[in-house]
Input
Amino acid sequence: GAGVSQTPSNKVTEKGKYVELRCDPISGHTALYWYRQSLGQGPEFLIYFQGTGAADDSGLPNDRFFAVRPEGSVSTLKIQRTERGDSAVYLCASSPGMNTEAFFGQGTRLTVV
Amino acid sequence: EDQVTQSPEALRLQEGESSSLNCSYTVSGLRGLFWYRQDPGKGPEFLFTLYSAGEEKEKERLKATLTKKESFLHITAPKPEDSATYLCAVQGMTSGSRLTFGEGTQLTVNP
Output
């Protein structure tokens, strides 16, 4: 597709469960970012990939959060033992390279009940 | 640590009533300042990148300007379809490729 695609658009899960959120970036974009946005707040950085490797994962809140990008294209954000405080919109973005404008997907709204 | 403060939090305008949104920032060496528009239930939509003080960029009714401490998003003769949340973000020299966002200004333009 022409833009960044995120699936699912909505996810409701029970506390303690494991979830995976998928991001399909714009074709040819080497940089991929994950952000988290709570209601009324700006997006908060989680992790950045350049190619297949995580160049900066300093925004991941704890070791329950993990992300991969095995072939340098699609990325998956994985959250173990979900907590109610993990409820937020998870945004993925991609850019042609480092230090260029990032283009965002529609986000995945995660609700932990 | 990079910091961004946007004001006002919310702004209500009549159609045609021009105004400005403010983005104040603190960063150890600015690599770039970015403006995004976000509609409810959508991801942020890229508008502008500014790199150095004195730079200006325009798109339709929007014009973004940059100084060493702040950026303004000027909206000239707004229309109801300009209603959205406008987000400002900075990328600092010491923060890699991450963006640090402000909390946004929620703009409502009434017909």
Remarks:
- The mean pLDDT of chain A is 95.
- The two ends of chain A are 32 Å apart (CA to CA).
- Chain A is about 0% helix and 50% strand.
- The interface with chain B takes residues 4, 31, 33, 35, 40-45, 48, 50, 55-56, 59, 91, 93, 95, 98-99, 101-107 of chain A (CB under 8 Å).
